[in-house]
């Protein structure tokens, strides 16, 4: 009997098609991953309740789960009027009321439908840490008041608390490196790539009441109290971070005043080398000794007055500051920052922000300037007469203008003699923002508390719309049905015709 070739080939082809269709069907159904598409912008807010003032930062990101790279950005920033919340000790309810103006701005910015799902945090830093040391009942009452005000808004209130110095340092470091995409990057080939570890930056934050340094050292951190272990996007980091309480620039100035007062006593007129010639300041002794950062002489009259007379003497200003920043005492460890605090040698590039930036920006030294230009600029600025200066900068707040000479010298002492940046001065960049977002601890804090910093590498899936997926399944099932039907017809009638 002659074999009929055509129906046999057709049958083989149909069987092959059927098998492929069944495999396609299994793959389409079994390995189904659902991915949400961006549906709308989401928001999150953090109050930075600093020692000198409070600011509200509002962040936004696309409303899906793909926010685990540098997608979160700052939508708005609102400066709360008045001083920091720790200054409300005699008017506790005022601390809560002070936040209302900025909360109203947030209400006007966030669409009504999103307000309920907007997480809202308040983190207080060194001013409240100090108040907590002095009188924890008062600091608790202030935190309760600010929480009450925040809860009176529709936002998803997640807490008002004092953050630790280590958290403050680590979150500042996370903010910088998140914004610079140093943890993870989306490459041109559509794959996630992990940039080389050398591209991770260190963070230098100078506040009013504390100062923080955070970086990845070359060597393992020897003191566990300064080690911060993190796992981000499948990589482990051991961060060195230290917060020097009482060494923010305002408390450091208080320390200098206490030093000058004690060493000149009983005179009530005291030469001040970091104030400009022509600037005089009269204060009560209680204004100097009202902080846990300074030890009052015993006995002392809180109401007695002293007058500081500016002499604008750069060399003396620098050496006086060296008296309040102990740079010699490093007995317990092979390497130290200042005050005998363990610190491995600095490593890599750094961003210096907050008062580091304000001071260097004002002096025209940001983002970078050579050491010789920095030194000569500070010296000639400190030499300026106060009257000339006020006329030259009519729009600069007097409290800032008065302090730039001191702050600049203080910055040089802690960076060069404290942290020992001498040979790596050019590694420091004085910055305020990255990608239109302010550098500070608040973004890192929010990313962490909202679980937007995964410890594992993000999974990339290529997806289709649900309707397209249903159409694909329907088409495959239909093709399968048709193929089976033809095979049956061929088997029954094919070979005999
Ligand atoms: N425009 C500015 N010029 C100079 N200094 C500023 C400016 N804005 C803020 N500062 C200073 O920056 C510091 C910010 O510290 P802050 O965040 O309030 O305290 P902390 O972080 O210690 O709790 C303060 O010393 C404040 O005076
Ligand atoms: Ca701060």
UniProtKB/TrEMBL annotation:
InterPro entries: GDA1_CD39_NTPase. ATP binds at residues 208-212. It is found in: Cell membrane. Its main location: membrane. Its EC number is 3.6.1.5. GO terms for molecular function: apyrase activity; ATP binding; GDP phosphatase activity; metal ion binding; ribonucleoside triphosphate phosphatase activity; UDP phosphatase activity. It catalyses: a ribonucleoside 5'-triphosphate + 2 H2O = a ribonucleoside 5'-phosphate + 2 phosphate + 2 H(+). Keywords: ATP-binding, Calcium, Cell membrane, Disulfide bond, Glycoprotein, Hydrolase, Magnesium, Membrane, Metal-binding, Nucleotide-binding, Transmembrane, Transmembrane helix. This is Ectonucleoside triphosphate diphosphohydrolase 8. The lineage of its organism: Eukaryota, Metazoa, Chordata, Craniata, Vertebrata.
């Amino acid at each position: 009997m002659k074999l009929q070739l055509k129906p046999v080939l057709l049958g083989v082809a149909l069987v092959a098609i059927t098998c492929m269709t069944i495999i396609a069907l299994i793959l389409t159904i079994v390995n189904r991953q659902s991915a949400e598409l961006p549906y709308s912008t989401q928001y999150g807010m953090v109050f930075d309740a600093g020692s000198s003032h409070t600011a509200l930062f509002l962040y936004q990101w696309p409303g899906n789960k793909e926010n685990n790279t540098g997608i979160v950005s700052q939508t708005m920033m609102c400066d709360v009027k008045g001083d920091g919340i720790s200054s409300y000790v005699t008017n506790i309810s005022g601390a809560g009321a002070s936040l209302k103006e900025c909360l109203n701005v947030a209400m006007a910015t966030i669409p009504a439908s999103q307000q309920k799902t907007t997480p809202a945090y308040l983190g207080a830093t060194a001013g409240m840490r100090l108040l907590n040391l002095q009188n924890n009942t008062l600091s608790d009452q202030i935190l309760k008041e600010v929480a009450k005000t925040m809860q009176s808004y529709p936002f998803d209130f997640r807490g008002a608390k004092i953050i630790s110095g280590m958290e403050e340092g680590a979150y500042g470091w996370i903010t910088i490196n998140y914004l610079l995409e140093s943890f993870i990057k989306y490459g041109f080939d559509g794959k996630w790539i992990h940039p080389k570890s050398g591209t991770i930056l260190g963070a230098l934050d100078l506040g009013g009441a504390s100062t923080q340094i955070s970086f990845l050292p070359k060597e393992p951190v020897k003191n566990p109290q300064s080690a911060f272990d993190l796992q981000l996007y499948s990589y482990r980091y051991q961060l060195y971070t230290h917060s020097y309480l009482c060494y923010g620039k305002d408390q450091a100035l208080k320390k200098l005043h206490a030093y000058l007062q004690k060493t000149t006593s009983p005179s009530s007129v005291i030469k001040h080398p970091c104030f400009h010639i022509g600037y005089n300041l009269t204060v009560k002794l209680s204004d100097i000794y009202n902080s846990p950062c300074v030890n009052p002489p015993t006995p002392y009259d809180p109401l007695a007055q002293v007058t500081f007379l500016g002499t604008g003497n750069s060399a003396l200003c620098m050496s006086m500051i060296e008296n309040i920043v102990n740079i010699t005492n490093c007995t317990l460890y092979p390497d130290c920052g200042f005050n005998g605090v363990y610190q491995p040698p600095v490593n890599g590039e750094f961003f210096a922000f907050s008062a580091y930036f304000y001071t260097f920006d004002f002096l025209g030294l940001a983002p970078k300037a050579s050491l010789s230009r920095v030194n000569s600029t500070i010296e000639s600025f400190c030499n300026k007469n106060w009257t000339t200066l006020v006329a030259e900068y009519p729009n600069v707040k007097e409290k800032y203008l008065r302090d730039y000479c001191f702050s600049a010298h203080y910055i040089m002492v802690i960076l060069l003699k404290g942290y020992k940046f001498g040979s790596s001065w050019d590694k420091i960049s004085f910055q305020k923002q990255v990608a239109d977002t302010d550098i500070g601890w608040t973004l890192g804090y929010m990313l962490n508390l909202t679980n937007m910093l995964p410890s594992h590498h993000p999974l990339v899936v290529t997806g289709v719309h649900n309707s397209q997926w249903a159409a694909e399944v329907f088409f495959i099932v239909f093709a399968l049905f048709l193929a089976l039907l033809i095979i049956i017809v061929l088997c029954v009638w094919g070979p005999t015709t």
